User: What shape does this take?
Amino acid sequence: ALGEITTTRVSARKSGEPVFSHVREVTHIDVSPKQILSLSTALIPFLEHDDNTRASMGTNMQRQAVPLVKPHSPYVGTGVEGLTARASGHALLADEEGEVTYADSNEISVVYKSGRKEIYGLQSFVRSNQGTCFNMRPRVRRGEKVRRGDSLADGASVQSGELALGQNLLVAYMSWQGYNFEDAIIISDRVAREGLYDSIHIESYTTDVRDTKLGAETVTRDIPNVGETKLKDLDIDGIVRIGATVHEGDILVGKITPKGETELTPEERLLQAIFGDKAKDVKDSSLRLPGGAGGKVVDVHIFDRAEGDELSTGVIKQIKVFVAQTRKVQVGDKMAGRHGNKGVISRIVPQEDMPFLEDGTPVDVILNPLGVTSRMNIGQILETHLGWACEKLGVKMATPALDGIPTKLIGDFLEQAGLPRDGKVQLFDGNTGEPFAHRTTVGQVYMLKLLHLVEDKIHARSVGPYSLVTQQPLGGKAQHGGQRFGEMEVWALEAYGAAHTLQEMLTIKSDDVIGRSKAYEAIVKDEPIRRPSIPESFNVLVKELQALGLKVDLLKFKDEVEADERVTVESDEVETIELASRVTAEEEAEEIVPTEDQISELSEVGMESAEEVVAGIEEGAEVEASGVTAKEEMADAASEKSMESA
Assistant: This one.
């Protein structure tokens, strides 16, 4: 009968475990194969052909996709793109049947059949928590009829009412001069030139106006020791105007803080006494754009306690400045497909140098075929083939997750589009025009640009701030810090025997305070760099041991000191070396017992009795600062005795 299961034994789930059971034992049937998947996973076509770890990566990376200025929905989808866009809250939907009376980039007016008129405001340049930009674009025109549920405007990552996280690109799976080694991605400059992956990023910069003990801070354009060129974009209140283009170090909010007499230098106090200039009683505490930032000011928010805004204790006013920046795709940016096939752009190649098809069409992206075999995400290959057929046929296809199109049908679609059934074509070298040795898999792949952008991560330091305790450079880009050279990196240099590099890393490039300043001075004066001195971390260790009640001293033995003195005299350097020679009470109390060698040595110079030998050793142990050795003293004593006996 209609609606009944024809087989007697079926695969089912019992307590979450897969089992084979009789059809009469089945109580519930899944509505859809994809109902066990999350929404993000259900967006992956040919999911059933991907390894679970790569499917998990694809799920997570779709959440990291950057909203693009000109997004496109995929040729190969799963059928839930429209549902996702409508449920996202970023698409504007019609409440009921009606007609559009007005539409522009700021608002859309609709008169519904019931007679109700609705005006919808469109969001523009709204900053997300990730610093990306949400912007709404109208989809309807004046006079257009709409029905309930129709999309009136597309939001971020939405195109024509469908989720659009990236772009459809023509991809070839081949190696190319080693530039796509280890998951690196090669893209054509057409992708960057046409702005396919352009995205807008908005950063907010905040400053608080506080009430200090010396008086309230003031937001003003009148900032001491700042030229007029730096103030050109500030309004009369000292706040940057909307629309101004700002660069690193530019003033966003001019602010001055009262300065106490104690903070004035003697020179400043003298000048005040002579000229009576009290205007210098303030210091510049303006909000400036940090290093590496820049863009266009798109919004300014002012919160004032006097107008009833809730602010922290001691804060009179808070000013937020929003700066937007358009970022093109560049070398170092992270890109990915929907199957966990991620990589970093290694080179942007001129379009004319990219491999091209028989009809002269250059490919947009070159991916490494070795990135497919071991990862076992074959879904990307099936997407490549079906995507190319879709592009040639001018259609979009939905292949639901876990219920996809059979692979035989993909071959049929390729033939229908006039393409080889196996999806492989002859490519030609863009540099020489010669055909490559083997046919190559080519097709349309949907690729995303991820939030891990090189512009946010690239960082360099020559000199900068140091930690107060350890005197080592700070860490992290925000602190303008250095690169951490850890324990394992030290092992690596030790393994290579790179002694000089290792010594520099642990001294003058880190916490040898005297050595690093002397090294800098030597480089400036074009002189050889001196030997490093003791790093500050050793002093920290000594202090920590002293805190535990341990007496720790750094000692130098006499022969080392003499060697050091010889070195310093040869190099015309005068160094003061402190000698710490201490004898403990236990050592003083110890009875001196002469060795057989000492007895035989001293007996040669006429000391016969053991008492005389001990006396000679004791006398030799008391070394004068004149540098006379114990042996010479004893020899003198013996010669005197022999003369007396004579």
About this structure: The radius of gyration is 39 Å.
